[in-house]
Amino acid sequence: MVEHQRSEQGSPEQRRFAGTAAELHALPIPTEGDAAELWIMEPTSSAVVMGSSQRPDIFDQERLRKDGVALAARRSGGGAVYIAPSSTVWIDLVAPRSSRFWSSDLAENFLLVGRLWQKAFRSLGVATDLCVASPGQTEASTLACWAGTGWGELTIDGAKVVGLSQRRTRWGSRVQSMAVLDGSSARVSDYLMPLDQTIVRDSLQIHDLGLKPAAVEAAILQAFTTS
Fold it and tell me: What are the φ/ψ torsions at residue 191 (nearest 5 degrees)?
C-alpha cells in the first residue's frame, strides 16, 4: 500500500508504504525526478533483515519459523536487524543529486539525517549522542547492526537508538533510518546460532526510550519539514 502526503514547499514529499520488511527494502530507488522524498515505512510483521553480505545459514531457521519471524534481505551492508512493527519508527530519505538533502560526501549524507533525528528527539526532551566517526567493525557488529555505530547514528549511554544505512546510485541516494524505542533490537541475537548469540549478547546494549511511535514519527517528520 502506498499513500501520498502533501508537504510544505521546499520539504521532501512524504510517501507512506506498508508491507513486509522484504517488500519495503525491495522498493526501487527512483531513476529520475528532482524532488527529495521521505518514505514512511510501516512493516506489517516482525522480521530479521540480513545485511547484503550475510547468508541465511547463520540464522536459526527453526526458531524463526516457530516464532513466525520472517528472514529478509536488504541491499545495504552491515549486520542483521530485528524489526518489531510496534516499536520501530522507520523513515527513509530518498534524494536526487540535485537536492539539498544529497551530498557527494558519503559521511555527510549520514550526518545530515542523524542531526535531524537528534533534533527530533530533542523536541521530545530526549538527549542523544551523535556518532561522527566512521563505522568501526567488530565481530559483533558484523553479525548485528545494533552492536556497532557509524556516521550519523544516535546513542544514549552507549546504546544505539537510531541506526542508518545507505545506498547510492547515479540518480542519488536512499538513506534508511530506523529508531527502536524499546530495546527490541537485541532480539536479533535470538535468531543467530548459539556461538554467535553469545558474541552479540555480550556487545549489544539496549535503552528503553519510553516513547510512543506516533510521537517519534511526528517529531522526525517535523524536523525534516523545518530543516
Answer: -110, 10
